[in-house]
Structure formats: structure tokens, C-alpha cells
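sry for the spam today, last one i promise. C-alpha cells for design, 188 residues
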């Protein structure tokens, strides 16, 4: 079972990026605990988040995932996950690595815009979550969250947990680029 409030990770493979992205997609609009508790079911349904395998999923595989106990029965999110596996592989191939793709942008704003265009069901909140969790530079939470409607207690808990552990990848100025190393955490 995954923790309800996840940690910042150091992605060692595309599967690590894909797992964080998938969690961002599935937990959007639902309780984080609802996704975290059966996370092992997601891991099994999506082939340990191997993007090569998931990118090859067909309609029968989508139906199989939807029938997996513990996985939300949301066809749109399952299909988005398959599409995101393909997009992740494409970004990795085009840039030499997914980390290089992320670092190729001049600012968080341009990177976020491209992620939302390129990947299915990634909005403002899930893009920030994805980059934060994978240790890439993001704007300071208190400034950025004012642009998003609503209260976000789990996001606040995640940020505080990362700060307390010295692992927050937040940056403190609006003009800083994605590859800028002036943030608190490590940027890959």
C-alpha cells in the first residue's frame, strides 16, 4: 500500500516518472487515500508502470484494467494512462531522456503548458504535483496555489513533508528556469 501523502522521489527510470504521472491522473478529483490504499492494484494493472508495455495496451487491456479490483472504474483515466505512456516514450526519445525534456524549457510556465498539451488529463494542479514529486523545479507552493481554486490540504501536507525532509524542489523567484539549481531540492 502506498502512503496517502507521497514523498518526492529521484526518478531512476521512465517507470518512476510514469508511476507519479499515473497517480496524479487517478487521484485528481478523488480522495488521495482512495487511490493510495489500493496502489498495488494499480501497479499490477499497469505492468509495474512499464511505459513500453502500457503503451501497447489495446481495448482488451483497458477492459482488464477496469475490472481490476481496487482500480477506479474510470475508462477515461485508464485510456489517458495508456496515451500518457506513449507520450512519455515520445518525449524521452525526442530529447534523449525525459529529464532532458523537462530541463529543455526556459521556465515553469512554458514547461507546464507543454505538459498539459502533450499529456492527457494533466491540468495545472497535476502538472505541479508531477514535477514536485519527481524533484523538478516548481514555483513556491504558497504563491502558485493562489492561482488554483479551492483548498488543497493534501498538497500542503506533501509540501510541508518535503520541506521538513529537505527535499522540496520549489524555487523562489518567478524568472528562474526549470534547470535552475537555486531551488531547495535537487533538480535532475
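last one done:
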Amino acid at each position: 500500500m502506498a502512503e496517502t501523502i507521497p514523498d518526492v522521489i529521484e526518478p531512476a527510470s521512465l517507470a518512476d516518472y510514469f508511476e507519479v504521472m499515473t497517480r496524479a491522473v487517478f487521484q485528481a478529483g478523488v480522495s488521495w487515500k482512495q487511490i493510495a490504499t489500493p496502489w498495488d492494484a494499480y501497479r499490477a494493472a499497469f505492468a509495474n508502470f512499464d511505459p513500453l508495455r502500457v503503451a501497447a495496451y489495446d481495448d482488451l487491456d483497458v477492459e482488464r484494467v477496469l475490472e481490476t479490483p481496487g482500480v477506479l472504474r474510470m475508462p477515461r483515466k485508464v485510456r489517458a494512462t495508456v496515451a500518457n505512456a506513449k507520450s512519455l516514450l515520445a518525449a524521452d526519445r525526442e530529447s534523449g531522456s525525459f529529464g532532458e525534456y523537462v530541463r529543455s524549457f526556459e521556465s515553469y510556465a512554458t514547461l507546464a503548458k507543454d505538459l498539459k498539451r502533450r499529456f492527457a488529463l494533466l491540468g495545472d494542479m497535476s502538472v505541479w504535483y508531477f514535477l514536485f514529486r519527481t524533484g523538478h523545479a516548481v514555483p513556491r507552493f504558497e504563491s502558485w496555489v493562489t492561482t488554483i481554486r479551492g483548498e488543497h490540504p493534501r498538497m500542503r501536507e506533501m509540501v510541508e513533508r518535503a520541506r521538513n525532509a529537505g527535499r522540496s524542489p520549489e524555487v523562489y523567484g518567478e524568472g528562474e528556469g526549470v534547470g535552475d539549481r537555486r531551488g531547495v531540492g535537487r533538480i535532475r
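The CA atoms of residues 67 and 161 lie 34 Å apart. ok im logging off now
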